[in-house]
Design a protein that fits this description.
single chain, about 290 residues, alpha/beta, 5-stranded parallel β-sheet, 3-stranded mixed β-sheet, 14 helices, binds nicotinamide-adenine-dinucleotide, 6PGDH_NADP-bd, HIBADH-related
Length: about 290
């Protein structure tokens, strides 16, 4: 049976690993958080395999990690996946990282049998649970063809952006820049609606069939704002991370994006005010609370 490693069993990684188990693959999970590992065994996952061992026995290894630093450590560190990978294992990183990390990993693979694809995802935790994720894959087309039958068990829309290993990450960062704009826009506009005496539910039904409709309006309003519950979700902290990466990408291309810069400051301020671990839609509440004070 094909062996798949899965490193990082958090909000996104756990449901993806579980879906691979349900698709009939043999899955070896690794996480710093032992409870997350334990949870995987309840669904038939195997745990207790070290990263060097994983790199030797697996056909494919996925990673879903919270930061670029964690990704670099797992791939490029001592006893990391690249150093230890001896078979023709294909490594697939689904994390959102700073532009350039993928390239460093791909360069480290040169001259080795190990291959690497950067495959960031969109669709959130719900998409990971329901297997409706969008994958934006950058790297060699032949490796994309190798991984396609497996990622088709995790997502609905699988795209090969181009052969540049950073290309999926660029598409993903642009996606998240849009999300940052929409989330801020929805938060400000709905505060205006409330303060000016418009019922938010009524407004949603009107705007959902008008040009203001968007998937983020739908998600943020129906999933969070409506019931005033902001359990993540996609944390404001993670969105801020991705906006920072998008700005790095803009800097690399000597592009000044003044509205995006302001957006980034807005999210940074929200984190300083203690909203970082809530779903990003909590920006609506922050604006409301500021209006009250
Ligand atoms: P998370 O914090 O819930 O999960 C990350 C997991 O990685 C945690 O369980 C943590 O213990 C584990 N981990 C951290 N360092 C590790 C290490 N060195 N070795 C082993 N395990 C380690 O984060 P998440 O929400 O699942 O996001 C994961 C990635 O997916 C991020 O890069 C994020 O930007 C991206 N992403 C998230 C969403 C979302 O909606 N949450 C959507 C799309 C993409």
């Amino acid at each position: 049976m094909m062996k798949i490693g899965f490193i990082g069993l958090g909000n996104m990684g756990f449901p993806m690993a579980k879906n691979l188990l349900e698709a009939g693959y043999s899955v070896y999970g690794v996480d710093l958080n032992k409870q997350a590992e334990q949870r995987l065994t309840e669904h038939g996952g195997k745990i207790g395999t070290s990263i060097p061992e994983l790199a030797k026995i697996c056909d494919f290894i996925f990673t879903s990690l919270p930061s670029s630093e964690a990704v670099e450590e797992i791939y490029l560190g001592e006893e990391g996946l690249i150093e230890e990978g001896t078979s023709d294992v294909l490594l697939i990183d689904t994390s959102t990282v700073t532009p350039g990390v993928n390239r460093r990993i791909a360069e480290a693979c040169e001259g080795k049998s190990v291959s690497f694809l950067a495959a960031p995802v969109s669709g959130g935790v719900i998409g990971a649970v329901n297997k409706t994720l969008t994958f934006m894959i950058g790297g060699p087309k032949k490796d994309y063809h190798r991984i396609s039958p497996i990622v088709e068990r995790l997502g609905e829309n699988i795209f090969h952006v181009n052969e540049d290993v950073d290309s999926g990450t660029k598409a993903k960062l642009i996606n998240n820049l849009f999300i940052g704009f929409y989330t801020a826009g929805v938060s400000e506009a709905l505060n205006l609606a409330r303060e000016s005496g418009i019922d938010l539910e009524n407004l949603y039904h009107i705007l959902n069939v008008s040009y203001a409709s968007s998937r983020i309006y739908d998600r943020n309003y129906n999933g969070f704002i409506k019931d005033e519950q902001y359990d993540p979700g996609f944390t404001l902290k993670l969105l801020r991370k991705d906006l920072g990466f998008a700005m790095e990408l803009a800097d690399q291309h000597h592009l000044d994006l003044p509205i995006s810069r302001n957006l980034l400051s807005m999210y940074e301020e929200a984190i300083e005010d203690g909203y970082g671990d809530k779903d990003m839609s909590v920006l609506y509440r922050k604006i409301r609370e500021q209006a009250k004070s």
